[in-house]
Amino acid sequence: MPRILLLLLVLALPATATGAPCPDGALGTARVLTVDAAATPRVGRKHFPTTLALEPREVVLTFDDGPWPGPTDRVLDALQRECVRASFFLLGRNAVKFPALARRALAEGHTVAHHTHSHPLLTGMSVERAEAEIDRGFAAVDTALYGRAGSPPTTPFFRFPGFASSPALLERLARRGIVVFGADLWASDWIPMTPAHELELVLRRLTASGGGIVLFHDIHAQTAAMLPEFLRELKRRGYRVVHVVPAGQFAR
Predict the structure, then answer these.
(1) I want to staple 139 with a disulfide (CB 3.0 to 4.6 A). Which of 27, 63, 149, 151 is the partner?
(2) Nearest to 121 by CA among 154, 189, 157, 169
(3) Is the pLDDT of residue 252 over 50?
(4) CATH number of 3-13+30-246: 3.30.930.10, 3.20.20.370, 3.30.465.10, 3.40.50.2300?
(5) Omega before 246 within 30 of 0, i.e. cis
(6) What is the C-alpha to C-alpha distance for residues 75 and 85, in angstroms, rounded to an integer?
C-alpha cells in the first residue's frame, strides 16, 4: 500500500480504530514526543548515558520482534481499548511474512520501527555485514508498510538485537540520522513465566525507575495476556504514556 494511502487512512481514523471515541476511564496517550537523531542519537539508560526527555511517571511503551499472528493481534487490541500508542521494532522477516499485521500497527497510529531482518547479534560479524543486515531489515519493513524501500528508512528508529551494539555501528547509524533505542527497564519476557509474574516484575521495576522506556516483546503470549492489566495498573498508579515519533514526521 502506498504511503500516502496509509496516511490518509490514519487521518480518517477517529480516536480508536473501531470508530468509537476513547471510552471513559481509558488510559490514553498523554502527549507526543518528537525524537531527532541530531539531538538524541541514542537513548535508554540501560545501555547509554542518556535517555528521552521524559517527566517523572511518564512511560514509552516499546515492543520488539514482531509482528506475529496471535500475540501481536492481542497486544494491538489491548492498546486500542486503552487508546494507547506504542512503538514496534519489527523484524524484517516477520514483516515480510505478515505485512497486514505490520500495516495494522501503522494504521492504528503506532510508531513502526526496525530491529534488523533476522535478529542476529551484530557484534558477531563484520561492520559491513552488520550494516547490510540492518539495511535489509529497513527495506523489508518499509516495503511491507509502504510498498517500497527508501534510504533513509521512513521511520529512522532502530534497536539492536540483544542490545549488542558497537562504537563503529553506532557512529554509522548516527551519521545516517538513525536514532538507536535502548531501554530504561524491561519485563524480561524472553524468560517463560506466568502473566501474573511478569506483571509483578515489570511493575516493581517501573516503581523503582519512576518511568522511562519500557521494553516488551509482542511475540510472546504471556506478554499479550499480561498487557491489559498492566495498562490498567498504569492508570491506577498515575503513570502517563508518551508516544515517540521521528522529528519532521506527522504526529498521528
Answers:
(1) 149
(2) 169
(3) no
(4) 3.20.20.370
(5) no
(6) 11
